[in-house]
Design brief:
Blueprint: H1 2-15, H2 20-39, H3 50-62, H4 67-86, H5 113-121, H6 128-143, H7 147-151, E1 158-159, E2 164-167, E3 175-178, H8 184-198, H9 218-232, H10 239-252, H11 257-264, H12 270-273
Antiparallel strand pairs: 1-2, 2-3
Helix pairs in contact: 1-2, 2-4, 3-4, 6-8, 6-10
């Protein structure tokens, strides 16, 4: 099954255009399913039945896994067996009618206006790090981009004069967004003053770099955001909070929902409409 899993990984990455993290999630779920099936004496995918898969979801429930975790496992199984049938490894898809528990989605959390003001004022802009951090936080709040998209920005992706950012989105959902005029000076201060002094190598084209002069990591950004949040007395602040806050404030200020959908990189508008309930 290991070779088949590798083929599945290539399929969801290259043909479906799923992100690296999504690929890891799918493959991890399928590996766990394989392990359980083998513990039940099932070593060939053509021998797997719907009853087996339903028994696996019951097994996950017996381990007190959340509905969200079980639903994700079901989605991964469906994706895998659909792939296996398409490639003629099986003739009948045992996951076709597999039931998943209902997941009640929590309303996205947003930051209050006062918290955003505190957060943007927190970086010490007398330092190179503070100049960088203010630019990063402001850009996220002005565009709603994901943290992975922020950290993957290259120098060529940012037009400081036109205030345009080219975002290499999840899968094939690349897009171009314009950031607010009021943060233009923050972006220029970082790029023209701080970045050149922080760079470890002159040929590094990462737009935002770490204090070591290299491309920033997700862990590094989460850490700095948590530090600023704690300093400001904000109990819960994550990159998702910044993204959600952008969406809500954009709609509140009269932005068309399809424009917000485009800025966020949502493939379907229903993913964007959930923010309307928070207005």
């Amino acid at each position: 099954m290991e070779e088949l899993l590798q083929e599945f990984d290539n399929y969801i990455g290259k043909e479906l255009g799923k992100s690296h993290n999504t690929r890891l999630s799918y493959c991890r779920d399928v590996k766990l399913l394989f392990a359980w099936l083998q513990s039940q004496g099932i070593s060939k995918i053509e021998d797997v039945t719907k009853a087996d898969l339903q028994a696996y979801t019951d097994h996950l429930a017996s381990l007190h896994k959340s509905n969200a975790t079980i639903s994700r496992s079901v989605a991964s199984a469906r994706q895998f067996f659909s792939f296996a049938k398409m490639r003629a490894y099986i003739f009948t898809d045992p996951s076709a009618d597999l039931k998943a528990p209902k997941v009640i989605r929590k309303a996205p959390k947003i930051a209050q206006d006062t918290d955003i003001e505190k957060l943007l004022s927190a970086p010490d802009t007398t330092t190179l790090k503070g100049i960088r951090d203010r630019a990063m936080l402001s850009l996220m709040l002005s565009t709603g981009m994901r943290v992975s998209e922020l950290l993957n920005l290259r120098v060529a992706d940012v037009d400081l004069k036109k205030r345009i950012v080219k975002i290499n989105g999840v899968g094939s959902r690349n897009r171009t967004v314009t950031y607010r005029k009021d943060i233009s000076s923050y972006m220029q201060d970082y790029f023209l003053m701080a970045r050149s002094q922080m760079l470890a190598q002159e040929d590094d084209d990462s737009f935002f770099v770490s204090c070591q002069g290299e491309k920033m990591t997700r862990q590094g950004f989460w850490k700095l955001l948590k530090t600023y949040g704690k300093a400001c007395g904000i109990k819960e602040i994550t990159p998702y909070t910044l993204r959600h806050s952008f969406a809500v404030y954009a709609l509140k200020n009269g932005e068309d929902i399809h424009s917000v959908q485009s800025a966020l990189g949502h493939s379907a508008v229903y993913s964007t409409t959930e923010y309307s309930s928070l207005l």
